[in-house]
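Subject: Sanity check before I submit

Could someone independently write out the C-alpha cells for this chain? I want to compare against mine line by line before I put it in a report. The sequence has 147 residues.
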Amino acid sequence: MNNWTKFEKIKQIKENDKNEVQIQFRQAVDEFEKYAEELLHLLKKKEAMEVAYQNSLIDGSIDKMKGYYNYLNYLTPNILSVQKKVNHARDCMNKLQEELTQKYIEVKKFEKIIDRKKQVEYLLINKMEQSTMDEISIRKYTDSKGR
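---
Independent answer below. Compare away.
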C-alpha cells in the first residue's frame, strides 16, 4: 500500500524549497528595512537643514545660508540614490513574498494529496479487515452448523 510515501518525499522537497525562499524573503525584508531606515534618517536630516536654512534667511547670515544650501544640494542626490535602493529592495521583497506564497500553496496541495491517500488507504484497510471478519464469522457459523 503506502502509495502516499512518494508524495511525502515530494512534499519534503517542496517544504525545503519553501524554507529556502522564506530565508531569502527574511533577508530581503532586512535589506528593505535597512535602506528604509537610511532614507528616513536622510529625510530627517534634510528637514532639519531646511528649517535651519529658513532660520538663516531670517537671521541674514549669508555664510550660514550658503552652507545650508550646499548641504541640502549634497543631501538630495543621496536621498534619490537611497530611494532607488528602497524601491528595488521593496520590489525584491514583494517578488519573494509572492514566490513564498506559491511555495506555501504547493506544500499545502501535497499535504492534502497525502491526507486523501492516507484516508483511502485507511478505508481500504478497514474494508479488508471487515471482509476478513465477515469471512471468519461465516466460517465459524458454518462450522457450528455442521456439527
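---
OP: Matches mine. For the report I'm noting this point. The two ends are 40 Å apart (CA to CA).
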